[in-house]
Amino acid sequence: MASLKGCVAVVTGASSGIGEATARDLAARGATVVAAARRADRLASLASSVANVHAFECDVTDVASVQRMVDGTVAQFGRIDILVNNAGIGLTGPAVQVELEDWRRMVDVNVMGVLNCTHIALKHLVEAAAGPRGVADIVNISSVAGRKALPGSSVYAATKFAVNAFSDGLRQELASKHVRVSIVAPGFTKSEFIEHIRPDLLAKIRASLEAMPAMTAEEIAETITFCVTRPAGVSVSDLLVRPTEQER
Ligand SMILES: NC(=O)c1ccc[n+]([C@@H]2O[C@H](COP(=O)([O-])OP(=O)(O)OC[C@H]3O[C@@H](n4cnc5c(N)ncnc54)[C@H](OP(=O)(O)O)[C@@H]3O)[C@@H](O)[C@H]2O)c1
Fold first, then answer.
1. From atom 23 of ligand 1, which residue's Cα is the shortest distance away?
2. How far apart are CA 164 and CA 18, in angstroms?
């Protein structure tokens, strides 16, 4: 697999789960990684335990915060070759029971967060693609829910359908500029994802969620690394990755 030495990668939502595992994996391939999320303590402990991972506190829903993170990355490391838009939340539950605020938060983080980071980092990605590596990467983390909406997760699914549509349009627009846009859509993956569901709703479904077949965050991180280590002339547009025993 190609080395990422000399590349600068920004991974959002890197304080736990898939984002943290991706920050570790990209750094192991030689990239300088900016790990961005809100929980500064978790980022600091990641950065202190992995060489080449640097913590940057950032709320992807806050444009000024994203601008500071992108400007800070370029000021400190000179470029952005890879953007992994991973930060996301799934506040699932029956429509008659969840709060409207939960739906708004999912749209803010899962859709606006992706748009904020992409819009602000884009000129740096285009510049990087014109450099010696000959390519730059945006990897957007979608979900199986981005292919099929299910009861209890209609708004989460809507946000991931939006990520897919944005990614495919952007991919076509950026093709001639050599900025690849990949969708990675995981099935059920062990992480802190379910812990954000409202406690009263989670209590009813925790046992069944914990019994479901699940992948590790590292297994999805490997898939993300696969996308960004293809030869410059190869773009992996869309990967759906399920636990073997997950049926839908
Ligand atoms: N786990 C699954 O089964 C599964 C399946 C399909 C898709 N996914 C997708 O995978 C991605 C990662 O989820 P995960 O499973 O690794 O869950 P996780 O462990 O809960 O990680 C979510 C990450 O998003 C960050 N985040 C949330 N709100 C943020 C904000 N406003 N600004 C910046 N960062 C924010 C969190 O950091 P802070 O709280 O520190 O900000 C955390 O690092 C999400 O996009 C999710 O939709 C997960």
1. 13
2. 18
